[in-house]
Amino acid sequence: xxxxxxxxxxxxxxxxxxxxxxxxxxxxxxxxxxxxxxxxxxxxxxxxxxxxxxxxxxxxxxxxxxxxxxxxxxxxxxxxxxxxxxxxxxxxxxxxxxxxxxxxxxxxxxxxxxxxxxxxxxxxxxxx
Amino acid sequence: xxxxxxxxxxxxxxxxxxxxxxxxxxxxxxxxxxxxxxxxxxxxxxxxxxxxxxxxxxxxxxxxxxxxxxxxxxxxxxxxxxxxxxxxxxxxxxxxxxxxxxxxxxx
Lengths: 128, 107
Known about the structure:
The structure holds 2 protein chains of 2 kinds. By secondary structure, chain A is mainly beta.
């Protein structure tokens, strides 16, 4: 059974930084695209970032790990993964109130992924 | 960026009725359309991928159709546990985008 568990959500002041983590189990972590999707309070879903795996179900091309970001976070957030620990991270810098949301870790399938498993989410609150 | 527009915003039906949810893309995305269900207080769950393929464990009363720019999610006979917000997502190109959601309520 696929399990994804996020951690690291917290209350942070505007301009601050936070690092989220997602620990995965129940599948071959290294081969799949991993993703962050967020949901502001009372709002819809917003894709945040994706990092390729090294298998056929990922956008892994020419042995190069690739990352993609939403324009709203580009230059401020960094997605990374440690396949030896089945862990994905999201380093978030220069946070603003607009980043307040539940952040979901999601396992992705396909070159342009769909999200076939989700974690329960971790809440990030940015406020003074 | 591909914009997805869902309609209606809210659908209020009686148990056993048929629910029809729409998702329209701002440009052609072939069949690269995905549906998710988000029950109150829960994380989203994958329902359908590539327009018409049910995910593992999804009941047969859920079906998807469409290609190009117009897509439909149908719940053939509404059950109380289907109360949720339903989102579409396109996986045709980066950035990945979601529709704004359709809320399904029971009368």
